[in-house]
Amino acid sequence: MPATKTTSAPKTIESKLARLGLRTDMDLVLHLPMRYEDETKVVSIRDACLRGLQTWQVEGVVVKNEITYKPRRQLLVQIADESGELQLRFMNYYGSQVKQMAEGVRIRARGELKHGFFGAEMVHPAYKVINEGAPLPTALTPVYPSGEGLSQTILRRAVTDAMKRIDWRDTLPNAFLSRLQLWDFEPSVRLLHYPPADVDEYALTERSHPAWTRMKFDELLAQQLSLKRAQRARREKGAPQLRAVGALSDAFLGALPFALTGAQQRVVKEIRADLVEGFPMQRLLQGDVGSGKTVVSALAAAQAIDSGYQAALMAPTEILAEQHFRKIAAWMEPLGVRVAWLTGSLKKKDKDAAKEVIESGEAHLVIGTHALIQDTVQFAKLGLVIVDEQHRFGVGQRLTLRNKGSDGLVPHQLMMSATPIPRTLAMTYYADLEVSVIDELPPGRSPIVTRAIDQNRRDEVIERVHAAAQEGRQVYWVCPLIEESEVLQLQTATETFETLAEALPDLVVGLVHGRMKPLEKQAIMDAFTAGDVHVLVATTVIEVGVDVPNASLMVIEHAERFGLSQLHQLRGRVGRGSAASVCLLLYQSPLGQVAKQRLLTMRETTDGFEIARRDLEIRGPGEFLGARQSGEAMLRFADLEADQWIVDKAREVAQYLLDNSERPEYMAIIDAHLTRWLGGREEFLRV
């Protein structure tokens, strides 16, 4: 069932459709409406005016058309039918619309009817010019997710045309459909694009209609098939067998100034067992903030080095990469391990020198940022790739690093995340990964008390900061990342820094933000780590990886602008020593419902897994997993919480099909289904 290209669309429209991910006819057919408009009925103007305050469709002849300039320039069009008159008001309009709605023209308009100062009116209604007696649609009108320059008319036409060209054959046999009590594919899709006027609108809107159930099942089945098949394909690939847990691993463990927790020991065992296999490990290491993931990853690297291979650790920011470098190099270099450092900000000479020791194999362990995945970086013998905060990297980036193995072998991959992923989500989105969890914090971590405080009490907070510093404690003051404007974000941090420096003249206040040069940034961080800076004003560059045990007070400004996982990550910068720690969430009232839920969650729990569960409830899986950053094929139709029963069925069917895939008829089902739902995008699910 080949995916036919949308070749009939004009080039500009084709490129706009492609930006929405609509490259083939099947993409268009599966671009399902987000809502519907009922244009199957017309009510009289009199009835609409009597009932008011909801959306109606009326029809009438234009009796007056004028442009007025009070209180601002606008187009007023009066239409009338036998029962009365109604005003249509357009604040933004084109000259062509003025001509289109000339007096005497018949118009069908649909919009919310309001009672304004001059009587009943619709503001910016949808309208069309019609002839008298023009037939009404017999189906609800679909409204599609759209993009810049793509009107609903263009999308509707593109979808309708694509539906004439595709192969409608069902990918699932009738026996499956009847056993699963699912509708056939074609009637499901046709109903969703053109619902008849008598359809159960509630079931359609709530996506509980049998047609929606079929779409959700198909989407989940494609995802599960792809992930499980990727897992099998991975097991057929060759990977270095890192069998040696030798002198370096033993010396490293012996040199650590602390004992591993039970959870760390369990996870190390799981990783070690994977690394000796002849197929690539693909393991996600989850652990709450401060649970000790770095030590576990360093032990995995030691096993690779003991076995004669190189290891690479990639982190999303220079600050985080540098934290890893300093910590791991301090552990490993005394044991004779050469640790190389590679980031985009290095001078050309230093970059070239780093690339040279990586390519020659002199560097046993390489730590850095995205710079590691450049084409010019060649490894002598890469055996293990460690990716920290893996959700912050695009799929393509993770794939590039994995492809840097040698001798046709694929390096083992260990991904780390301090954003715990709820079990349901992990089973569905990471069906091709093994998941390890460090569910225990090292002893001696102090509990963190969290309070939400209105911005109006800012002076009290500054007094508290002063008192903490007088007691010898250090303080973080975090300013928000304002997505719309880096400049504005910088200004917020700079202004806060100036305010605090003025209010606390006897303290040393430092400032760190994303636009500073790496060396400047590092100098401030070093001064803070050494205790020479009392208060560190920062943007979210300190979100992960910063470890200063003496810092016991965290102030997060405009906490309502942060997501739950970010708030939890930031809070994790304190509570790393033995002193009681406090996190103050400064918020600007009034708070929206979602912001209230977030701040309440932060006050109630410090458990990252519970926070992740609530975050999933608040945001849904697409947002939660960072679809925009990761580029992963997110679920468009299924809801993992509400549709758990469909998830379970899809998982079972995927397993059954793959278990029987040596039979040609089952292989044909798998191929047809994946082609229909994923086209050429399957590779991205395998990282």
Automatic annotation (TrEMBL):
SUPFAM superfamilies: Nucleic acid-binding proteins, P-loop containing nucleoside triphosphate hydrolases. Plays a critical role in recombination and DNA repair. Helps process Holliday junction intermediates to mature products by catalyzing branch migration. Has replication fork regression activity, unwinds stalled or blocked replication forks to make a HJ that can be resolved. Has a DNA unwinding activity characteristic of a DNA helicase with 3'-5' polarity. GO terms for molecular function: 3'-5' DNA helicase activity; ATP binding; ATP hydrolysis activity; DNA binding. InterPro entries: ATP-dep_DNA_helicase_RecG, DEAD/DEAH_box_helicase_dom, Helicase_ATP-bd, Helicase_C-like, NA-bd_OB-fold, P-loop_NTPase, RecG/Mfd, RecG_dom3_C. Keywords: ATP-binding, DNA damage, DNA recombination, DNA repair, DNA-binding, Helicase, Hydrolase, Isomerase, Nucleotide-binding. Residues 474-617 form the Helicase C-terminal domain. It comes from Massilia yuzhufengensis. Pfam families: DEAD, Helicase_C, RecG_dom3_C, RecG_wedge. Belongs to the helicase family. RecG subfamily. Residues 274-438 form the Helicase ATP-binding domain. GO terms for biological process: DNA recombination; DNA repair. It catalyses: ATP + H2O = ADP + phosphate + H(+); Couples ATP hydrolysis with the unwinding of duplex DNA by translocating in the 3'-5' direction. It comes from the Bacteria. This is ATP-dependent DNA helicase RecG. Its EC number is 5.6.2.4.
